[in-house]
Amino acid sequence: MVFIEFADCESAIYFIRHIEDQTVSPFGQFVQVSLVNTPSYPISLAIEEHLQYGCTRNVAILEKENPEEFLQAFSKTYHGHPEHILEDVWVDKRGVLFVQFRSLSEAVKFFGTIRRSSRVADQLKVDLSLLSFAADPCDPATGDQYVESRFRLQWESLLDVWLSNKKEADEEHHEEDVGNDSWETITSSQEGETSASPQQTLTNATETDHEDDQKSDWDDEQDYWEDQQDYSEDERYYEEFDHDYW
After folding, report:
1. Going edge to edge, which strands form the sheet with 58-61?
2. pLDDT digit string (tens) for 139-172?
3. CA-CA 20 to 30 A from 208: which of 2, 5, 83, 226?
4. Which of 83, 75, 131, 81 shows the shortest CA–CA distance to 108?
């Protein structure tokens, strides 16, 4: 089985119809050519309904103030990881902020949340009257202005900038954690050096006992010589007494 992936669905359908119109298939009599199921084909009823109402993966916010702050608020208020559901974010020369989602359902969900929740709209600083859907990247091109709303082109990707800043902040935070862990290790090591080990404690206790024994022996020797001195004095006394007596 051979799979051929086309750049757009119109080309795939045209190819299938072209093969069907041929009297003799270029691939042979027993080769069957048909479309296969993909994430975007066949279209579900929900997606078909969204498309009928003009919904796309591209949400436009007109006259957005401080668009560079949008993703920070978005990550705190709506979704903690914008890169998981967003494909790109940019501002064009007219000041329109384009928020391009990875799926139509996520774009419709975001659009509906902003419409229903004034709290989220206020935190994201989005004016409901300036919120709309823009052309989808998969839509056929119908002019230069239409193309500019489908793709970022030369404009800076605010999503890439936000991800880069977030990565730098995470690395700095990681370095601080490593530094704190190293400092705690050094402090613990110093405390370990100042506190005696069991072997050192035993040695110190042995040395202390030895010193006490030496001191006791010295005291006993001192007592002995004091006793000897007392005995000599007594002896001298008795000699003097005996001499006087006689």
Report:
1. 86-91, 97-101, 58-61, 131-133
2. 765 554 445 567 787 889 999 999 999 899 888 8
3. 226
4. 131
